[in-house]
Amino acid sequence: MNPQKKFHLVFSLVMGALMISLMTLVITFVNVGLVEDFVGRWLRAFLIAYVVGVPVIFFLAPMARKITARFVVMP
User: Fold this and answer.
1) How far is CA 10 from the centre of its chain?
2) Which of 63, 62, 45, 74 has its CA nearest to residue 9?
3) Please, which contacts does 7-16 make with residues 24 or more away whose CB atoms are closer than 8 Å?
4) pLDDT tens digits, 29-63
5) CA-to-CA distance for 20 and 42, rounded, in angstroms?
6) DSSP letter assigned to residue 21
7) For the range 55-63, what are the long-range contacts, defined as Cβ-Cβ under 8 Å and sequence gap of 24 or more?
């Protein structure tokens, strides 16, 4: 695997973990509050979202970069 593809894969895994953990934490808290089984509910939501979210990030990030480049002038 070339370094650019490896970077993109690792970026997708890391970005997915960071974004999805924060979002599922907040949404789980909003939906159920700080209940006894909060951590279990949050982990379940995280795992489901991670399996869906990382491939979405992997495949859509290049498109998002191209769209962003149209709006932002890079030096």
Assistant:
1) 12
2) 62
3) 8/58, 8/61, 8/62, 9/58, 11/61, 12/54, 12/57, 12/58, 12/61, 13/54, 15/57, 15/61, 16/50, 16/53, 16/54, 16/57
4) 999 999 999 999 999 999 999 999 999 999 999 89
5) 11
6) H
7) 57/12, 57/15, 57/16, 57/19, 58/8, 58/9, 58/12, 61/8, 61/11, 61/12, 61/15, 62/8
Amino acid at 44: R
The two tokens of residue 63 are 């498109």
Ramachandran category for residue 33: left, alpha or beta (phi over 0 → left; psi -120 to 50 → alpha): left
Q: What residues contact 50, with CB distance under 8 A and at least 6 apart? A: 16, 17, 20
Overall pTM surpassing 0.85 (yes/no) = no
